[in-house]
């Protein structure tokens, strides 16, 4: 069995902590057993490891999230989407990778699931049982449906056919064929669906690799990974549900009756957050069921506001009643501001100031933290200069083949086209001032990412 973990998201539903490069699954707001904090994706990968499934898993993600995935999970198998499309292109690309690069058998079962379900450990062995569901049902696709605990209007529902087995012979884990799908019904409709045995659609399904490869042949989609990557933008921007699942027949569904929750909004996420305060903050009296998540260096004090979520990051500040917090995407969905905070493989940076001047020249001030023993790539910029001031720590810098030690208080000017890199001997903090006509990542040209190659300069 192979697992495809889909990692996407535009980073709007948990604004201001989430952004284009740091979607909800990367927020370190969940407490581990040892008291340290972890993200949703770290939690899921840890659970996969306990179930013995991590070695069979691949993460499908876009280039904007690739560094975050490797930074939080380490050197895990990642299939990179050349651009953001939807779940059908992402799954098709990963299936072609398994087929043409990994040489996976067409008879191999492939299970697809989101990268961030909040579930019990026993959820993942149940995913592995989908292979048996495919065999027993003879279906093209096997889905996992969650037994509803209330008539939710937020989820899609899977409606199984009436039981075709004799009375008393069917168990909750027995696969049933799917009659239809219903997306986000009203509460009254949800109640009726649940009475019919409908299940929440948790986005988990499985198929034989050959099933999808045959579909791609039918759709005249390339079966070689490099070729498909080159033509990726030509694939339809459509979900796998609409393009494949709803057209497939027969489809089987297996019921999962354990704990499952989508932590996609502040009100649901804070239900699973053990500390009421993360970062600098104080909760005064009459502030029951209020959470403060603060990434800024100044304290936040909340008094007399129950059932509220207060979140602060370099991207903005949110103060919202928990019941209305799911509407945040409606408010900020059209915003296209650059992320003010990003995590990278080497550490992180925070934007302190950004301006566009009358002559079109841009300027930006960043606080960069490079973790000890990590380094930047050897790269240059064509349209901007940079000035570094070392705040703390020690580093070794190379610029156009010349080496120097860096200590707190040192200043370095890096002109356009100067190739440069730095290795953090200890945790290194730099205040960087950029100035030029293009301060985006499009004006970053890497010549080497390996330190052995860089140190040979």
Structure description:
The chain has three domains: 2-261, Spore Coat Polysaccharide Biosynthesis Protein SpsA, Chain A (Alpha-Beta Complex); 275-332, no CATH class; 346-455, Jelly Rolls. 35% of the residues are buried. The strands form eight sheets. The chain has a six-stranded antiparallel β-sheet with strand order 20-21-22-29-24-27. A five-stranded mixed barrel has the order 8-11-9-10-12. The protein has a four-stranded mixed β-sheet with strand order 14-16-18-19. By secondary structure, the chain is an alpha+beta fold. Helices cover 21% and strands 34% of the residues. It has twelve helices and 30 strands.
- On the 0-100 scale, what is the average pLDDT? 92
CATH superfamily of the largest domain: Spore Coat Polysaccharide Biosynthesis Protein SpsA, Chain A
- The overall strand count is 30
Structural domain tally = 3
Global Rg: 25 Å
Helix content: 10-25%
Second rung of CATH, namely the architecture of the largest domain: Alpha-Beta Complex
Specify the CATH class of the largest domain: Alpha Beta
The percentage of residues in β strands lies in 25-35%
Label the overall shape: globular
Q: What oligomeric state best describes the polypeptide chains here?
A: single chain
Structural class computed from helices and strand pairing: alpha+beta
Largest sheet: 6 strands, antiparallel
């Amino acid at each position: 069995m192979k697992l495809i973990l889909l990692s996407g998201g535009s980073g709007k539903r948990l604004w201001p902590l989430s952004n284009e490069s740091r979607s909800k699954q990367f927020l370190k707001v969940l407490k581990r057993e040892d008291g340290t904090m972890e993200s949703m994706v770290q939690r899921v990968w840890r659970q996969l490891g306990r179930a013995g499934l991590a070695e069979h898993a691949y993460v499908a993600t876009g280039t904007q999230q690739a560094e975050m995935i490797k930074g939080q999970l380490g050197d895990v198998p990642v299939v990179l989407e050349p651009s953001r499309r939807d779940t059908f292109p992402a799954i098709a690309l990963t299936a072609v990778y398994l087929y043409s690069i990994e040489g996976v058998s067409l008879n191999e079962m492939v299970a697809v699931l989101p990268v961030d379900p909040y579930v019990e450990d026993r959820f993942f062995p149940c995913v592995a049982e989908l292979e048996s569901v495919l065999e027993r049902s003879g279906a093209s696709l096997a889905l996992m449906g969650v037994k509803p605990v209330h008539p939710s209007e937020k989820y899609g529902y899977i409606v199984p056919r009436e039981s075709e087995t004799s009375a008393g012979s069917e168990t909750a884990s027995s696969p049933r064929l799917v009659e239809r799908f219903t997306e986000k019904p009203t509460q009254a409709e949800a109640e009726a669906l649940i009475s019919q045995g409908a299940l929440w659609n948790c986005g988990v399904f499985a198929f034989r690799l050959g099933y999808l490869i045959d579909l791609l042949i039918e759709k005249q989609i390339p079966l070689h990974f490099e070729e498909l990557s080159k033509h990726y933008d030509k694939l339809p921007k459509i979900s796998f549900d609409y393009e494949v699942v709803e057209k497939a027949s027969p489809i089987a569904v297996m019921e999962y009756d354990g704990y499952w929750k989508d932590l996609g909004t502040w009100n649901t996420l804070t239900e699973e957050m053990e500390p009421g305060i993360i970062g600098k903050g104080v909760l005064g009296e009459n502030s029951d069921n209020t959470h403060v998540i603060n990434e800024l260096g100044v304290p936040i004090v909340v008094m007399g506001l129950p059932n509220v979520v207060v979140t602060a990051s370099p991207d903005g500040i949110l103060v919202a009643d928990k019941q209305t917090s799911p509407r945040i995407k409606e408010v900020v969905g059209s915003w296209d501001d650059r992320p003010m905070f990003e995590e990278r493989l080497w550490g992180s940076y925070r934007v302190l100031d950004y301006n566009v001047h009358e002559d079109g020249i841009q300027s930006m001030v960043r606080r960069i933290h490079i973790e000890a023993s990590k380094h930047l790539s050897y790269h240059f910029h064509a349209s901007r200069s940079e000035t570094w001031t070392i705040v703390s720590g020690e580093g070794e810098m190379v610029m156009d083949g010349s080496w120097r030690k860096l200590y707190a208080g040192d200043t370095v000017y890096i002109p356009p086209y100067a190739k440069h890199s730095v290795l953090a001997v200890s945790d290194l903090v730099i205040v960087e001032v950029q100035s030029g006509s293009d301060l985006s990542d499009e004006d970053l040209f890497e010549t080497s990412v390996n330190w052995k190659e860089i140190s040979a300069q």
